[in-house]
Amino acid sequence: MTAYELPKVWKWEDENSDLGGNRPTAGSRFEQTLPVGEAPFQLYSLATPNGIKATIMFEELKELGVDVDYDVYLINIGDGDQFGSDFVEINPNSKIPALVDQSQEPRLEIFESGSILLYLAEKFNKLIPTDIHGRTETMNWLFWQIGAGPYVGGGFGHFFAYAPEKMKYPIDRFTMETKRQLDLLDKTLGKRPYIAGEEYTIADIVNWSWYGRLVLDDLYEGSAEFLDIDSYPNVLEWARRIAERPAVKKGLEVEYKPIKD
Questions:
Q1: Beta-bridge partner residues of 108
Q2: Is the pTM of this model over 0.85?
Q3: Which spans are transmembrane here (predicted)?
Q4: Are residues 163 and 216 in the same domain?
Q5: Tens of pLDDT, residues 236-248
Q6: Same structural domain for residues 67 and 151?
Q7: DSSP E strand stretches across the chain
Q8: Where does 164-259 show beta strands of DSSP type E?
């Protein structure tokens, strides 16, 4: 392998016209009109670890008796749907999920999975404690996942499963951090049944979507064995328990409507 020589100024060398390809620039790449349904909430998403957070949240609210109707449309990130003009108008960061609350005047646009869950939890006063200690602990773990998750997805997952070649240094680095995070969760869940305490909250939804699916071997083929998941029994028990929740099952089975004819 040829040693990499660090340039004084980085330049993008693999320019392409692929609408879904990565680029060092933000903004829309083409004109796009997204469909808009009649439901109060319009969700534009995909069943990725971040995307399922929103559908699980909606289904959990329904299980709690909240009248929370929503339409969910498929944003195919491989085709570059997230770079269309309408989607970028909702989320200038061009990432799923993105949500529109049509019950507000003018309509309210929410992006980033953590922001969406927090918005819905506060709007309906569900799945987030009202006491200051419980609320703060829930927020601690909500923000922890948002900050820690990229090490698992963009770090470990990318180099373990998607990189064109296996490289020891990045795999070691991100495996080390992923296992540290799993150990932290295992120690936490050894003291209480849910991430933030005695009650199921949005902290469980955001963390299960990544770490629960990871230990259940639903993210990257072979990663459960590679990470020695059995050494985290508390996380594994929690992940299996959450997976059996009716709303979680429904959130994973939601039918996405197409945005194109």
A1: 101
A2: yes
A3: none
A4: yes
A5: 999 999 999 999 9
A6: no
A7: 41-45, 70-74, 98-101, 108-111
A8: none
